[in-house]
Specification:
52% of the residues lie in helices and 2% in strands. The chain is mostly helical.
Amino acid sequence: MKIGELAAATGLATSAIRFYEQSGLLPAAQRAGNGYRSYSVEAVDRLRFIQVAQALGFPLDSLRSLFVTTEEFSEAQLQDELLSRLDTRLGEIDHMLATLRTQRKDLHALRERMLASWAGGECIDPASIELTPVETPAPRARRVTRAPAPAQPVAPAPARRASRR
């Protein structure tokens, strides 16, 4: 399929597709006799995987690493690696949530203190402001076993690149 068809199938701009290809996230397209890029059907799955992963906060470097690392993995190894990376991302989100909760609590306390201080005609000394240390949530237990495979896959696994050997 041509790049315009791939763009239509994924909702991505052609410039984004070229960027993913140049940055190693999408295997290089074959070139037709006229020089046009020709993409396989697997490219649609790979780009959709990238879109979902980005929407869930995975950086492009992490995806690039995933694709390189899992190139020759078995299905079970690939599933374990995906679950491990999901668990890591969940831990990152838990930490961010804990940080935001702490900051919110500190902001409310500072706001009340400022109002009370101003009502008395005083200013708050910035050195007197004490912030609550962020409590890091306990790491999530690493999932050891996989659930039975669903009848139909929920999300496509990343398309694998052909071995370079």
